[in-house]
Amino acid sequence: MSYNKPSEFVQTMIDVGEAKIKTSSRDLILRGTMAGIILSLAVVVAITTIVQTGVGIVGALVFPVGFCILSLMGYDLVTGVFGLAPLAKFENRKGVSWGRVFRCWGLVGLGNLIGSLIVAALIALSLTMNFSVEPNAVGQKFMAVATARTVGFENLGMDGWITCFVRGILCNLMVCLGVIGNMTARSVAGKIAAMWLPIFIFFALVFEHAVVNMFLFPLGMMLGADFGITTWLSYNLIPTILGNIVGGLLFTCIPLYLTHVKTAPSLDA
């Protein structure tokens, strides 16, 4: 069969979580950096497509290409390890502690940020001819989106913060399903299909993804958008990260773990 049953791929989720926790600091940062680079370029492709066509759903259809590439290359997004790494602790795997779980989160997230900032700087240079001209239509779109999802939330105060947090939950519910999709199939085509569907959903519904936002908002600021780092952190990145943790861990990975590993006794028991 080309499909792994839930009882099989959930065990793979635990094994992968353990492997990531025990990966060296160098490799976690390197894999995170490359994941940030590839995902950021996928955002550029999606926004460019939206500008060219004027149809947002087209951007959502092409965005998952970056996620599929980085997953097949074995690179890591912090949103994925938010859900997978704790499973190894729940199973009391040898050498796994909460300290190591948080270390994994932090190093992968640092790598994602490094990769995202590298691409943001390069894309800002590209869109402005080395900062010699005003941003083109794609650059203007980046600025508008970044402003709407920072200043727009800030203007609403706590209501905006909560909205961003909830969108972060919904985002990583889908993104972790994309990560798991890579484990459900045995062929490359099957893996791509299983990853593509939930990633398309999150982007189409404009949910908040920590790594996408590590690229999108610094790029907006580099291009001249009228908001600062404090606004970005307070009203977007921090609530997005917290929401991503809740969505990936509590809404996606723990339910799969509970019903396929820690199953309740059957009615015939």
Summarize the helices and strands and which ones pair or pack.
Layout: H1 6-21, H2 25-53, H3 56-62, H4 64-72, H5 78-90, H6 98-127, H7 137-148, H8 151-155, H9 158-184, H10 188-204, H11 210-223, H12 229-260
Quick structural gist:
It is a multi-pass membrane protein. It holds the Pfam family Form_Nir_trans. With 269 residues, the protein is an all-alpha fold.
What would you say this structure looks like, in words?
- The model has no long low-confidence stretch (mean pLDDT 97).
- This protein has helices at 6-21, 25-53, 56-62, 64-72, 78-90, 98-127, 137-148, 151-155, 158-184, 188-204, 210-223, 229-260.
- With 269 residues, the chain is an all-alpha fold.
- α5 runs antiparallel to α6 (98-127).
- It has one domain: Glycerol uptake facilitator protein, CATH 1.20.1080.10.
List keywords for this structure.
0% strand; 269 residues
* Total strand segments: 0
- CATH-derived architecture: Up-down Bundle
Instruction: Show unreliable segments.
Output: none
- Our estimate of the beta-strand percent is under 5%
- Gross morphology: globular
What name is given to the CATH topology? Answer: Glycerol uptake facilitator protein
Radius of gyration over alpha carbons? 19 Å
Structural class: mainly alpha
Please tally the helical runs, counting DSSP H or I stretches of 4 or more residues.
12
CATH class: Mainly Alpha
Distance between the termini: 30 Å
Largest sheet: none
Number of domains: 1
